[in-house]
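STRUCTURE:
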């Protein structure tokens, strides 16, 4: 069986070469046109806010930036988890949204966070 396949391939070199070229061309076309997501993002929608407060101790950053920011982010609808981290001169606040569907877009989460931050910013300006 294998011997007949090899003998037939040796007799029809043009056909084998054309098939090889066609297979390579189809592979290159598929490589260029198919969308490829090698590492799918299965995590919930997250919004991370980074703030700078240069020259301040972590406790000052926690009291004046991180705590008000995380409490403001707790009021945003569909919040699953809100965490705040304070370091020397900087602060991170992360909001993880409750993803009811995998198709929940990031844009509504960003808009609601922006509203909360602008309300917080105006409250800080009044001090």
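SEQUENCE:
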């Amino acid at each position: 069986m294998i011997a007949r396949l090899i003998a037939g391939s040796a007799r029809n070199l043009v056909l084998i070469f054309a098939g090889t070229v066609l297979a390579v061309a189809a592979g290159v076309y598929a490589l260029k046109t198919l969308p490829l997501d090698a590492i799918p993002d299965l995590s919930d929608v997250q919004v991370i806010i980074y703030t700078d407060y240069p020259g301040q101790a972590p406790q000052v950053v926690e009291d004046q930036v991180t705590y008000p920011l995380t409490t403001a982010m707790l009021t945003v609808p569909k919040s699953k988890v809100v965490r705040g981290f304070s370091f020397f001169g900087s602060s991170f606040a992360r909001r993880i949204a409750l993803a009811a569907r995998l198709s929940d877009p990031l844009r509504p989460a960003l808009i609601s966070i922006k509203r909360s931050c602008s309300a917080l910013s105006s409250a800080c300006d009044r001090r």
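REMARK: The two ends are 88 Å apart (CA to CA).
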